Amino acid sequence: MRLLRSTDLALRVLMRLAVEDGSTPTTREVAADMDVPYTHLAKVVAELQHLGLLVARRGRGGGLALTEKGRTASVGKVVRTFEGSGDVVECEGANPCPLNSACRLRGALRRAQEAFFATLDPLTVADMVAPPTGPLLLEIGRPGM
Questions:
Q1: Counting CB atoms within 10 angstroms of each CB, which of 22, 37, 100, 122 has the fewest?
Q2: Residue 22 has pLDDT above 50, yes or no
Q3: Which helix or strand (DSSP H or E) is residue 133 part of?
Q4: What is the pTM of this model?
Q5: Mean pLDDT across the stretch 37-44?
Q6: What is the largest CA-CA distance in the chain?
Q7: Phi and psi of 130, rounded to 5°?
Q8: What is the C-alpha to C-alpha distance for residues 81 and 79, in angstroms, rounded to an integer?
Q9: pLDDT level of residue 14 (50, 70, 90 thresholds)
Q10: Is the pLDDT of residue 74 over 80?
């Protein structure tokens, strides 16, 4: 299973903000630090803000900050939200699979997907930035790195 780019960015933004020491980086600064297009990151930030996981303030003194809900958010729930609840493979659609009505693979893949999410469910964003990850995140994007 491969995560969507937006899911990866959402998790990385939340982790980055979880280790900020009172500073509130802008979306542009975070995009530059992560070496991703600003417009793509802005969409991810907007969704995270809509979910109540971060706040984004405009203007002087503005920037991004993690909310308490964001700090304690389940990694599994964040991944589910960004990935959606669809099947791993497309069995229906323009060219439906002829095995659809008797396929055992679809159920096995669904169970594997749920096991994947279940593994991530108990982990929080705060758990993901425990040492050694958190200190390393603080260094990313700083001059000399």
A1: 22
A2: yes
A3: helix 133-139
A4: 0.86
A5: 96
A6: 60
A7: -65, 155
A8: 5
A9: very high
A10: yes
Bridge-partner residues for 124, per DSSP? 74
Q: Token digits for 10?
A: 């959402």
Q: What length is written for the chain? A: 145
Closest of 56, 106, 114, 49 to residue 83, by C-alpha: 114
Q: Which long-range CB contacts under 8 A does 78-84 form with residues at least 24 apart?
A: 78/7, 78/10, 78/11, 78/14, 78/53, 78/125, 79/3, 79/7, 79/11, 79/117, 79/120, 80/117, 81/47, 81/51, 82/3, 82/4, 82/6, 82/7, 82/10, 82/47, 83/3, 83/4, 83/7
- 1 versus 127: the higher-pLDDT residue is 127
Classify residue 49 by burial, with Cβ atoms within 10 Å: 0-12, 13-18, 19+: middle
